[in-house]
């Protein structure tokens, strides 16, 4: 008795792999939505870092170096 399996009627296309994580992606664009947001966040973070390096925040003169520390006990 032969146990041959029938050939599939529809040939499956090779699955697209996500360029970020490398796993098979079933979405239309070929990239997972969560991986796409990770890529967008990475670009946004790099832009903000460049802006911060170009325009450093001014030093606040209102902070006093010898301010009262409520956690320290005073001697009677």
From TrEMBL:
It comes from the Bacteria. Residues 46-76 are annotated as: Disordered. This is Uncharacterized protein.
């Amino acid at each position: 008795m032969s146990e041959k399996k029938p050939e599939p009627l529809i040939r499956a296309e090779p699955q697209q792999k996500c360029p970020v994580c490398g796993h098979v992606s079933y979405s239309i664009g070929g990239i997972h939505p969560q991986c796409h947001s990770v890529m967008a966040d990475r670009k946004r973070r790099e832009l903000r870092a460049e802006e911060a390096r170009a325009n450093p925040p001014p030093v606040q003169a209102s902070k006093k170096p010898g301010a009262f520390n409520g956690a320290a006990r005073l001697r009677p």
